[in-house]
Amino acid sequence: MYINPLWKILERQNPQTRFHPYMNFPRNGVFDTDPSQTLVLLIDFKTDGTATWPYVFEQLAPLREGGYLTHFNGTVVVDGPITVVGSGNAPFDSIVSNSTYRDIFFDTSLDELAGDGHGGARNQGSTRPRTVSYDSTNSYYASSHSQNRLAPPGAFVSHRVR
Question: Does residue 21 carry a pLDDT above 60?
Protein backbone atom coordinates (compact mmCIF):
# COMPACT_ATOMS: atom_id res chain seq x y z
CA MET A 1 0.00 0.00 0.00
CA TYR A 2 1.40 3.37 -0.99
CA ILE A 3 0.71 6.01 1.67
CA ASN A 4 3.68 8.32 1.04
CA PRO A 5 1.67 11.00 -0.83
CA LEU A 6 -0.83 11.22 2.04
CA TRP A 7 1.99 11.31 4.59
CA LYS A 8 3.69 14.19 2.75
CA ILE A 9 0.47 16.23 2.61
CA LEU A 10 -0.20 15.65 6.31
CA GLU A 11 3.34 16.60 7.28
CA ARG A 12 2.99 19.80 5.25
CA GLN A 13 -0.34 20.57 6.96
CA ASN A 14 1.17 19.99 10.43
CA PRO A 15 4.62 21.62 10.42
CA GLN A 16 6.87 21.78 13.44
CA THR A 17 8.50 25.20 13.70
CA ARG A 18 10.53 26.98 16.34
CA PHE A 19 7.40 29.01 17.12
CA HIS A 20 5.31 25.88 17.45
CA PRO A 21 7.71 23.04 18.32
CA TYR A 22 5.05 20.56 19.44
CA MET A 23 2.70 18.52 17.34
CA ASN A 24 -0.82 19.89 17.06
CA PHE A 25 -3.54 17.79 18.58
CA PRO A 26 -5.97 17.49 17.04
CA ARG A 27 -3.96 17.19 13.86
CA ASN A 28 -4.84 19.08 10.68
CA GLY A 29 -6.20 17.08 7.77
CA VAL A 30 -5.47 17.28 4.06
CA PHE A 31 -8.06 19.93 3.18
CA ASP A 32 -6.89 23.56 3.39
CA THR A 33 -10.40 24.98 3.54
CA ASP A 34 -11.50 22.62 6.33
CA PRO A 35 -8.52 21.11 8.16
CA SER A 36 -10.81 19.25 10.59
CA GLN A 37 -12.52 17.31 7.76
CA THR A 38 -11.48 13.65 7.65
CA LEU A 39 -10.44 11.95 4.42
CA VAL A 40 -11.75 8.39 4.04
CA LEU A 41 -9.03 5.99 2.93
CA LEU A 42 -11.07 3.09 1.56
CA ILE A 43 -9.04 -0.12 1.36
CA ASP A 44 -10.76 -2.72 -0.80
CA PHE A 45 -9.49 -6.16 0.26
CA LYS A 46 -9.51 -8.17 -2.99
CA THR A 47 -7.64 -11.20 -1.65
CA ASP A 48 -8.20 -13.26 1.49
CA GLY A 49 -8.81 -10.65 4.18
CA THR A 50 -7.36 -12.60 7.07
CA ALA A 51 -4.10 -13.26 5.22
CA THR A 52 -3.85 -9.65 3.99
CA TRP A 53 -4.76 -7.99 7.31
CA PRO A 54 -1.29 -7.95 8.96
CA TYR A 55 0.28 -6.34 5.89
CA VAL A 56 -2.34 -3.60 5.68
CA PHE A 57 -2.11 -2.98 9.43
CA GLU A 58 1.68 -2.67 9.20
CA GLN A 59 1.56 -0.28 6.24
CA LEU A 60 -0.63 2.12 8.23
CA ALA A 61 1.94 2.36 11.07
CA PRO A 62 3.38 5.78 10.03
CA LEU A 63 -0.11 7.34 9.98
CA ARG A 64 -0.96 5.63 13.27
CA GLU A 65 2.25 6.75 14.98
CA GLY A 66 1.82 10.28 13.64
CA GLY A 67 -1.59 10.58 15.30
CA TYR A 68 -3.37 10.96 11.96
CA LEU A 69 -5.91 8.12 12.16
CA THR A 70 -9.48 8.23 13.40
CA HIS A 71 -9.62 5.60 16.11
CA PHE A 72 -11.77 3.95 18.74
CA ASN A 73 -10.18 4.22 22.19
CA GLY A 74 -12.33 1.62 23.93
CA THR A 75 -15.01 4.16 24.81
CA VAL A 76 -15.52 6.66 21.98
CA VAL A 77 -14.45 7.23 18.39
CA VAL A 78 -11.79 9.96 18.23
CA ASP A 79 -11.86 11.76 14.88
CA GLY A 80 -8.62 12.16 12.98
CA PRO A 81 -7.50 13.53 9.62
CA ILE A 82 -7.66 10.06 8.01
CA THR A 83 -10.43 7.50 8.53
CA VAL A 84 -9.46 4.05 7.26
CA VAL A 85 -12.31 1.81 6.10
CA GLY A 86 -11.87 -1.81 5.07
CA SER A 87 -14.16 -3.02 2.30
CA GLY A 88 -14.55 -6.11 0.13
CA ASN A 89 -13.01 -9.09 1.92
CA ALA A 90 -11.96 -7.04 4.95
CA PRO A 91 -12.00 -9.38 7.97
CA PHE A 92 -14.56 -8.06 10.46
CA ASP A 93 -13.19 -10.34 13.20
CA SER A 94 -9.74 -8.76 12.84
CA ILE A 95 -11.18 -5.26 12.83
CA VAL A 96 -12.99 -5.79 16.15
CA SER A 97 -10.40 -8.06 17.78
CA ASN A 98 -9.00 -5.24 19.94
CA SER A 99 -11.73 -3.79 22.16
CA THR A 100 -9.58 -0.94 23.54
CA TYR A 101 -8.03 0.49 20.36
CA ARG A 102 -8.76 0.18 16.66
CA ASP A 103 -8.16 2.50 13.73
CA ILE A 104 -9.54 0.51 10.81
CA PHE A 105 -13.30 0.54 10.45
CA PHE A 106 -15.60 -1.74 8.46
CA ASP A 107 -17.71 -1.09 5.37
CA THR A 108 -20.70 -3.24 6.22
CA SER A 109 -23.26 -4.39 3.71
CA LEU A 110 -26.71 -2.79 3.65
CA ASP A 111 -28.18 -6.28 3.31
CA GLU A 112 -26.55 -7.41 6.56
CA LEU A 113 -27.41 -4.20 8.36
CA ALA A 114 -31.08 -4.67 7.48
CA GLY A 115 -31.15 -7.83 9.63
CA ASP A 116 -30.15 -8.00 13.28
CA GLY A 117 -26.69 -6.51 12.73
CA HIS A 118 -25.03 -9.91 13.17
CA GLY A 119 -25.00 -10.92 9.47
CA GLY A 120 -22.50 -13.54 8.47
CA ALA A 121 -22.06 -13.23 4.72
CA ARG A 122 -19.01 -10.98 5.03
CA ASN A 123 -17.48 -12.58 8.10
CA GLN A 124 -14.46 -13.27 5.89
CA GLY A 125 -11.94 -15.80 7.10
CA SER A 126 -13.86 -16.95 10.16
CA THR A 127 -15.78 -20.13 10.87
CA ARG A 128 -17.11 -19.05 14.26
CA PRO A 129 -20.38 -17.13 14.68
CA ARG A 130 -20.14 -13.38 14.86
CA THR A 131 -20.68 -12.09 18.40
CA VAL A 132 -20.18 -8.36 17.80
CA SER A 133 -22.85 -6.22 16.16
CA TYR A 134 -22.14 -3.53 13.62
CA ASP A 135 -22.13 -0.11 15.26
CA SER A 136 -20.38 3.26 15.06
CA THR A 137 -17.33 1.94 16.95
CA ASN A 138 -16.49 -0.62 14.26
CA SER A 139 -18.33 0.31 11.05
CA TYR A 140 -17.92 3.66 9.31
CA TYR A 141 -20.69 3.20 6.76
CA ALA A 142 -22.82 0.64 4.96
CA SER A 143 -22.73 0.18 1.21
CA SER A 144 -24.30 -1.89 -1.51
CA HIS A 145 -23.81 -2.55 -5.19
CA SER A 146 -25.78 0.09 -7.10
CA GLN A 147 -27.18 -2.54 -9.45
CA ASN A 148 -28.94 -4.07 -6.45
CA ARG A 149 -30.49 -0.78 -5.34
CA LEU A 150 -31.28 1.27 -8.45
CA ALA A 151 -33.68 0.81 -11.31
CA PRO A 152 -32.27 -0.82 -14.45
CA PRO A 153 -30.71 1.43 -17.11
CA GLY A 154 -33.33 3.37 -19.03
CA ALA A 155 -35.95 2.98 -16.31
CA PHE A 156 -35.82 6.65 -15.40
CA VAL A 157 -38.05 8.83 -17.52
CA SER A 158 -36.65 12.32 -18.08
CA HIS A 159 -39.83 14.13 -17.01
CA ARG A 160 -39.76 12.27 -13.65
CA VAL A 161 -36.14 13.04 -12.87
CA ARG A 162 -35.71 16.49 -11.40
Answer: yes
